[in-house]
Amino acid sequence: MTQHIWSPWRMNYINNHDKHEGCIFCQALEQADGPANLILYRGSQAFIILNRYPYTTGHLMVVPYQHVPDLNALDASIRAELMELVTQSTAVLGRAYQPNGFNIGINLGAAAGAGVIDHVHIHVVPRWVGDANFMSTLGGTRVLPELLEDTYQRMVTTWQA
Q1: Which one from 59, 119, 121, 123 is the annotated catalytic residue?
Q2: CATH code of residue 94
Q3: Residue 75: inside a domain, yes or no?
Q4: Residues 104-119: pLDDT tens digits?
Q5: What is the pTM of this model?
Q6: Counted domains in the chain
Q7: Does residue 20 carry a catalytic annotation?
Q8: Hey, how many other C-beta atoms are within 10 angstroms of the C-beta on 70?
């Protein structure tokens, strides 16, 4: 794999990394699935979307359709589907990228680091031994081995396989 530090996507990230009006998840749901909205899968009560600003290649989020700020506002069937989609996500990411592990987490509230405070979501981040190196730890720079559009195509293809 070739590592991309600079790319048109990366410049788009730098130039357009401002706050969105409205909920990014609800807006994505209104669009047709594809590289523009990054939705990989729609379940009955939740969906899976790639993170537009990933920590690692394949970083995705599992999101309920219901726009609520925390897990307590969801009924048990939605929470169960979220966990099932997290499980499916790790399996698909495992087939697509063969990571050495995963970080799975929920940031509830601004103090916990939530970027989208009012629509709860679960991050699934593939990890590889040595992926937290100088560039990310001290340099404050993320190095992704492929473009986001390529990640979307790989994940969609692997999900359907």
Answers
A1: 121
A2: 3.30.428.10
A3: yes
A4: 999 998 898 888 999 9
A5: 0.81
A6: 1
A7: no
A8: 13
